[in-house]
Specification:
- The chain is α+β, with helices and mostly antiparallel strands.
- About 20% of the residues lie in helices and about 45% in strands.
- It has a 3-stranded antiparallel sheet.
- β1 and β2 form a beta hairpin.
Length: about 70
């Protein structure tokens, strides 16, 4: 019988910086740049994103999402 081990997940998380631009008078996402990571734990990535927001004068452009190669 096979069992799945949930704690052995291979998911990684990255902190991304979102860059917006003005197109036809509205803001639209142009690109998300990997800024830090990847991290094996979501909590670690969230903590790093909060740290980056503080050190960059409250910039809300730092987000956490699943890391993709």
């Amino acid at each position: 019988m096979l069992t799945k081990i949930i704690n052995g997940s291979n998911e990684l998380y990255g902190v991304y910086y979102l860059v917006y631009g003005s197109l036809a008078g509205g803001d639209e996402l142009i690109k998300a740049y990997l800024w830090a990571g990847p991290y094996p734990k979501l909590q670690t990535a969230v903590k790093k994103a909060e740290e980056l927001k503080k050190t960059h004068q409250g910039d809300e452009s730092f987000i956490v999402k699943k890391y993709r190669d």
